Amino acid sequence: MLSTLKPRPADKILELMALYRDDPRDTKIDLGVGIYKNADGETPVMRAVKAAEKQLWETETTKKYTALSGDPAYGDAMKSLVLADSVDHARVGAIATPGGTGAIRQAFELAKLANPDVTVWTSNPTWPNHVSIIKFMGLKNESYAYFDEASCTVDFDAMMESLKGVKAGDLVLLHGCCHNPTGANLTLEQYGLVADLIIEKGATALVDIAYQGFGDGLEEDAAATRLLASKLPELLVAASCSKNFGIYRERTGCLMAMSETAEQTPVTQGTLNFLNRQNYSFPPDHGARLVTMILNDDVLKADWMAELEEVRLGMLGLRQQLADELKRLTNSDRFDFIAGHRGMFSRIGATPEEVMKIREDFGIYMVGDSRMNIAGLNSKTVPLLAEAVAKICK
Ligand code: PMP
């Protein structure tokens, strides 16, 4: 059986990691893979996570199964973190999932159960794994216009024009904040207009929120999701705790499904539980438990928020420094958008040839579509990157 398998193309970002590892230059800079790194290039365990782990080690008396949904306390904590009071929580079902990716996968599974003919709409570009999973599941995929390559901002008119093709029963995937890979985001007003269109079409929105707290702040980054929850009759939300709690390998995500009425919730929740049972039975607990402990403890929560805020402000500072440096070197405002982008990434509009030349000549590794991980920089490496970009990008 196994001999019938065909080799699969390697993941581009993982390939880039290998190239970086093999580059002997000690001046090399990795702006590829999507993890947060501090100024020393490290991804430390957050203080509140360490403290919660210590507490857990001391107090946990059993490792028996929790529930198919994961511990309901985790779902409640995530509803409060992401949705706050934008919706009656009795209308929202929730399951713990293996990472944000697991939540996205389960959201597609749910949509497929509800409408086997569903078309999933994704932004052009989007996180490549969205499209990969949709295709792997045999679902239909359409992309909607999103990024204007010339200005490196959102082309909202083009986006609305392409979303006119959405049909009743379709699923429209939106990034809740900190768009990956571009860094360019909709305004709250624009999210509202997209919501109106989704209502008009009779479609459902799926919000992927993987960077809450990395853009404008914890509350601000959830504002679009909350607006959608308050306007739309139904909503799916796939949240990841990988970045904002720094627990990447613990695989901690949550799928929330908001039904039109609280009466519908038991069936929605039961279907979510069923989907967990079919795909992996009980979801992982460790990361979810840490998140629940942190969010339900004032001291741990305050410390987590303070550390997350340091992370966010550090990235904003690097954005500003890079935009200023490029303004000085190019004598133009062409790269001002870098300071306006939010989150861990910016797509800077360089051609694949320019990206390659920056890699070869300067040992600076960004993804082929010119996505760079801002957190891969520090105040000393920003001038090196600015010099490379100013020299190579014409
Ligand atoms: N959505 C987006 C847009 C992402 O960038 C990521 C992580 N790269 C995820 C979801 C999923 O993250 P994870 O499965 O690691 O929680």
UniProtKB/TrEMBL annotation:
Residues 27-388 form the Aminotransferase class I/classII large domain. GO terms for biological process: L-phenylalanine biosynthetic process from chorismate via phenylpyruvate. GO terms for molecular function: identical protein binding; L-aspartate:2-oxoglutarate aminotransferase activity; L-tyrosine-2-oxoglutarate transaminase activity; pyridoxal phosphate binding. The keyword Transferase applies. Its cofactor is pyridoxal 5'-phosphate. Keywords: Aminotransferase, Pyridoxal phosphate, Transferase. GO terms for cellular component: cytosol. InterPro entries: Aminotransferase_I/II_large, Asp_trans, PyrdxlP-dep_Trfase, PyrdxlP-dep_Trfase_major, PyrdxlP-dep_Trfase_small. The keyword Transferase applies. Gene3D superfamilies: Aspartate Aminotransferase, domain 1, Type I PLP-dependent aspartate aminotransferase-like (Major domain). Homodimer. Belongs to the class-I pyridoxal-phosphate-dependent aminotransferase family. This is Aromatic amino acid aminotransferase apoenzyme.
